TrEMBL record:
Domain of life of the native organism: Bacteria
Source organism: Cylindrospermopsis raciborskii AWT205
Protein name stated in the entry: Cylindrospermopsin
Length: 24
């Protein structure tokens, strides 16, 4: 797996978690 793919996946997960927390 390319590091870029990992960074994108990790960033996406963090972004989703932050959005969910902000929504709540």
């Amino acid at each position: 797996v390319c590091p870029r793919d990992v960074m994108i996946t990790f960033g996406n997960e963090i972004l989703e978690a932050t959005m969910s927390r902000r929504s709540r």
